[in-house]
């Protein structure tokens, strides 16, 4: 297999979370092709554990018009590194902080459409603080056992693909 050769790249739209891009490329046959995609700085997801329970947040997801139970997560904001962003998301969404975040892996949430990589962190070193969610965010905290998470995934009550991916990474990391 050959790597494609980028010919040009153009920004079509940009906001504080992502950029919509259009690239032209050649697959090696001399023909120019187009690729539309979303560029991001990435995202971070945190699997926080407190007293043998995992903290997940329930929030409204506008595009699906549904409520979703997820691990705390968010786009990496400009000027923040992965760890700082993970800590910020943990604090905003749960009202807990941690000095020890362990990176357990990463995944691509939607390859083919976005270049985003989501880095997954684990912590059990939690301290309670005041949460400071963004103005469009409301959260209900869920404290769930591993078995409860597995059952909610089986029952399709946890349907967020990023949460399911992070949980899978966590289970493999934990079994090492």
Approximately how much helix is present in the residues?
A: 10-25%
| Largest β sheet strand count, sense and barrel closure | 7 strands, mixed
- Put simply, the count of helices is 3
- Tell me, rounded to a whole number, the average pLDDT: 95
Order of helices and strands: EEEEEEEHEEEEEHH
How much β-strand is present in the residues? 35-45%
β-strand number: 12
Radius of gyration (CA) equals: 18 Å
Low-confidence stretches: none
Structural class assignment = alpha+beta
What is the 3D shape? elongated
The separation of the N and C termini measures 33 Å
Describe the structure.
With 176 residues, the chain is α+β, with helices and mostly antiparallel strands. The protein is built from three helices and twelve strands. The protein has helices at residues 82-94, 146-154, 161-174, and strands spanning 5-14, 19-26, 32-39, 43-50, 53-61, 66-70, 73-75, 96-97, 102-107, 118-123, 127-128, 140-144. The strands form three sheets. Strands 4, 5, 6, 7, 9, 10 and 12 form a seven-stranded mixed beta sheet that branches. The radius of gyration is 18 Å and the shape is elongated. It starts with a strand and ends with a helix.
Secondary structure layout:
Layout (H helix, E strand, L loop, with lengths): L4 E10 L4 E8 L5 E8 L3 E8 L2 E9 L4 E5 L2 E3 L6 H13 L1 E2 L4 E6 L10 E6 L3 E2 L11 E5 L1 H9 L6 H14 L2
């Amino acid at each position: 297999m050959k790597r494609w050769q980028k010919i040009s790249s153009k920004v079509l739209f940009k906001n504080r979370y992502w950029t919509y891009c259009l690239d032209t490329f050649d697959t090696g046959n001399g023909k120019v092709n187009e690729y539309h995609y979303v560029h991001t700085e990435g995202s971070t997801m945190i699997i926080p554990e407190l007293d043998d329970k995992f903290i997940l947040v329930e929030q409204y997801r506008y595009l699906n018009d549904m409520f979703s139970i997820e691990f705390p997560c968010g786009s990496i904001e400009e000027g923040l590194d992965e760890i700082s962003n993970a800590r910020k998301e943990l604090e905003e969404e749960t009202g807990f902080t941690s000095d020890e975040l362990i990176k357990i892996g990463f995944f691509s949430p939607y390859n083919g459409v976005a270049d985003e990589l989501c880095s997954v962190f684990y912590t059990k070193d939690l301290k309670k603080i005041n949460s400071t969610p963004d103005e469009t965010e409301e959260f209900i905290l869920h404290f769930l056992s591993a078995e409860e998470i597995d059952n909610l995934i089986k029952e399709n009550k946890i349907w967020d693909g990023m949460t399911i991916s992070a949980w899978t990474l966590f289970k493999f990391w934990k079994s090492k």
